[in-house]
Amino acid sequence: MFGCVLAARELAKSPNSDAKVFSLTKKACDGGSMLGCGSLGSLYGKGEGVAKDLKNAMRLIKMACDGGVGLACTNLGTAYQGGIGVTKDFGKSNSLYKKACDAGESRGCFGLGVNYEFGRGFTKNMEKANALYKKACDGDAARGCDNLGVNYAAGNGVRKDLEKANVLFKKACDGGYFQSCSNLGRNYRDGNGVPKDLKKAKALLKKACDGDDFHACVGLAILHMKGDGIAKDPKKAEALYKKACDGGSGSGCMLIGFAYDIGEDISKDKTKAVLYFQKGCDLGEGPGCEYAALRYYKGEGVSKDWTKAKEYFKKACDHDMETGCLGYARFQMETFTGSERWWKDNIMVFIAGLILCLLLFAAYSIRRRRKA
Question: Of the ranges 48-52, 120-124, 322-326, 335-339, which one carries the lowest mean pLDDT score?
Answer without folding.
Answer: 335-339
